[in-house]
Amino acid sequence: MNSDPYKILGVPKTATQDEIKKAYRKLVKDLHPDLHPDDAVKQERFKAVSVAYGLLGAPEKRRRFDAGEIDASGQERPERQYYHQYAGQDAGRRYDRGPEFGAGMDEEDLSDIFAQVFGGRTGGPGRGAFRQAGQARGEDLRYHLEIDFLDSARGTKRRVTMPDGNSIEIVIPPGLKDGQTLRLRGKGAPGYGQGDPGDALVTVSVRPHTIFTRSGDDIEMELPITFDEAVLGAKVDVPTVSGTSVSVKVPKGASSGKRLRLRGKGIKGAEGKAGDQIVRLKIVLPKHTDSDLEDLARRWREKAGCAPRAELRRMT
Amino acid sequence: MILTEQRVLSEIQRLTRRELRLWVQEGWVRPAMGEAGPLFDEVDVARLRLLCDLRKEMALPSDAMPVVLTLIDRLHQTRRDLHVLVEVLQDQPDDVRRLISERLRTRVSGWPETE
Question: pLDDT means per 10 residues in chain A (316 residues)?
Fold first, then answer.
């Protein structure tokens, strides 16, 4: 491809800045990739035109180029992500107009489109077109909401403000998952004519909790216990996502990593069946061990035949 | 990637805060609304760059924008629908595809020959 920016823009070397700008605008209208998403030749030319205008559109750069201080290719901007690259994917569906194709469509709409594509007549003539001309469903509006982990487990209410200043209340059902989208029927933009209003689509992110993590409908947490509780067994209070604590029996002689399952203390989903809370034991020693504890440990070491790492030696 | 209004403005230098708010209000770009204000994802940012091109580089008047945007959105929707249709057709047996290809050749000039 020609790399002379004057030739690319189709202007003489003596052109004024105004003439360059005019030529550029005309070319942009002809070549913009978002207006011709499937035309690779126009996209390449558009890139070249952008680079050329980046050079000649700025008087100082143009002077340096004319003086040979910089070359025609030295000015390329970092690769831009064009709108059509997204609009061609599912993410672009958000900006669709009119009835959807495929997902969320009732059978009538589907057969209308295939009737158009294949020339068959499965529905009444022109029905789809009439529906579009007289009325149309309002657009869906998107919202994003971040909530606390515990709110997501227990359910809550939130209010968000729309671009026009109005606000809507959003009910978060108990057991909501991170990244889940709630559809509020009729809370989107108003319809055209007799058309129904669109929906509000609320994507909810859940902030992670410092203690609880979620795995399906189960809640996992680590429970610190002392050395004597591990040796002798104990009853320990454990917090749950519902806000109340339950008393848990730590069995005698428990090791770190042992898992205890609290039935029904996990997330209560919409279907009513609750997950479990899984408690991982972790034996924690005091920051500073005193001489009593050290004596005890020394005496125990002398007579105990405990070899927890025997397995490691055998397997390696 | 989710950007706040401030981050979008530093990402797209030629865009002013006033324009951004106006375009959101007009519905030309539809960010998600968070508790602390609008949140833009990469689709919104790419669309904002396109809006800048249309308004600034091509000097399109403001009142022409809804028409242009509707046409662009319809173009992309139709393109995606066509891609779906093409994928469905690609799953069809060879003889069905050959038949469709032959029919298309008689209707559409410049349709490529099949082997």
Answer: 81 90 91 87 89 87 78 59 80 69 47 52 38 66 85 88 76 89 86 84 89 93 94 94 92 93 87 88 91 89 81 81
Check CB contact of A148 with chain B, cutoff 8 Å.
no
A98 Cβ contact partners less than 8 Å away, ≥ 6 residues apart: A132, A136, B74, B77
Considering only the top CATH level, what class is A213-303? mainly beta
Which stretches of chain A are DSSP H helices?
5-9, 17-31, 40-56, 59-66, 83-87, 107-118, 127-134, 149-154, 227-232, 291-303, 310-315
Task: Name the minimum distance, in Å, from the CA of B115 to any CA of chain A.
Answer: 24
Instruction: Provide the whole-model pTM.
Output: 0.54
Provide the residue ranges of all domains of chain A, joining segments of one domain with +.
5-86, 96-134, 141-206, 213-303
A143: nearest CB among B2, B32, B73: B32
Is A213-303 in the same CATH topology as A5-86?
no
- Tens digits of residue pLDDT in A72-85: 765 444 567 788 88
pLDDT tens-digit readout, A271-284: 678 899 999 999 99
**What is the topology classification, in CATH, of domain B1-60?**
Multidrug-efflux Transporter Regulator; Chain: A; Domain 2 (1.10.1660)
Write out residues 30-49 of A within 8 Å (CB-CB) of B: 32, 34-35, 37-38
From A85, A96, A144, residue closest to B33, measured CB to CB: A144
Q: Which two tokens stand for residue A198?
A: 């669109």
- How far is residue A178's CA from residue A171's CA, in Å, rounded to a whole number? 15
- Which sequence spans correspond to the domains of chain B? 1-60, 62-115
Which CATH number does A141-206 carry? Answer: 2.60.260.20
| Domain A5-86, architecture per CATH | Orthogonal Bundle (1.10)
Looking at the DSSP assignment, which residues form a beta bridge with residue A314? none
> What residue type is B17 in one-letter code?
R
Three-state DSSP state, A219: strand
CB A257 within 8 A of CB A279: no
Query: From CA A59, how far away is CA A67, in angstroms rounded?
Result: 12
How far apart are the C-alpha atoms of A268 and B4, rounded to whole Å? Answer: 34
CA B31 vs CA A108, A144, A203: distances in Å: 31, 9, 12
